[in-house]
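Q: I'm writing up a methods section and want to include an example of the input and output format. Could you take the sequence below and give the corresponding predicted structure tokens, formatted cleanly so I can copy it straight into the document?
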Amino acid sequence: MPVTTFEFDEKYKYQNGFGSYLETEAISGALPIAQNSPQKPPYGLYAEKLSGTAFTAPRHENKQTWLYRILPSCAHPPFASTADGPFKSDRPTDPAKLEYIPNQLRWDPFDHDDRTDFVSGLHLVAGAGDPTLKQGIGMYIYAAGKSMDEHSAFYSADGDLLIVAQHGTLDIRTELGWLLVRPMEICVIPRGIKYQVHLPSGPVRGYALELYQGHFALPELGPIGSNCLANARDFQAPVACFSEDFGATASEGPSTYTITVKFNNSLFQTKQAHTPFDVVAWHGNYYPYKYDLGRFNTIGSISYDHPDPSIFTVLSAPSDHPGTAVADFVIFPPRWLVAEDTFRPPWYHRNTMSEFMGLIAGEYDAKKGGQGGFMPGGASLHNVMSGHGPDAKSFEGASNAELKPALVGKGSCAFMFESCLMVGVTEWGLKMCKKVQEGYSEESWGGVQVHWKKPDGVSADGHLLK
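A: Here is the clean output for your methods example:
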């Protein structure tokens, strides 16, 4: 079945479609008819436009949503810088102190942390670029043991956040509605949208990628045709849901809500007297969404040779150069291998792109698992032009395997954040997390055997003029 069987049952209704123009109302009649900003919106609501692109972006790229809410987002006191959070200059995840190194890196599973919520549990591992220029990416590990306070909300002005759940369930309340995100599901929360993360099943751990420029899109299919890979109908967006917690004016109210914003990799906070989750209705194409990775329609060779891993791309954030991505999200799910006379695992490779890999569950077919190997909750980074590929044991096994049809990766799913950018690593990622496998390169490839045998009587001087 092309659907994941989840341990934690779904609890919400959704709308379906990727990049679709959707509309939803929690109370019938809350959406105005035929116009966006009437003189008096229904039920005394405020109309607020949320723009994810410039007004004049081409239609096929334009992202916007109209919100109909009880109070507008601008109704709050000024923000002030906060010493909390992982992004201050004295923190080991300071993005201004990235270290760029060519070494292959692999991390043991990252620790759980019962003391933190989702925001304080974010750790920047690696990244590139500058959010003030809207260029680049940030790669994160998150680990949290408690829900965010019900009177809090967080948003990032720096970019869209792609979340890859690895352990534990995320119950995410956004301004536009609720998303339940479980292991083997991903979600994307666009720049500027406020949210709150609850942990209904206990501690959580996973991965995240923040995209400073543009937005994720489905990859072009070319000669594949009109279907396969991630199909647009399988993406799910929330339906409108709102709370009533406010006073007679925006500055009066029975409760205090703390709003935290990530702005140029620093955190700022304000406190307001009304809930930020007061959107009664919305329409548009700029919204959070989730996707079940079990629905991915995998493509592969049915004759010979292992194709490029780009055929496993779920989402892509294109650069200004066609065919080159600022960030691709790629998965390696369960799949059948049938290629004849072929080395079936991914081949040895040096890449102009950077490759950050994580493992959601199971074992990856090109790397050994177990202690000291590539394990769920761990990660690896192969930077620009750093050689990588199957470890010695995996190579020998695949080179001598009987080539019959084989289902690989059952119960497993690895993924990759791939970027055209050279990626730097934070102090936390290199040292403070204490998860770097110091012997990764030697243990993986130090034992690669020499199988070369020069044929008898063959000269190796054919490049010389004689």
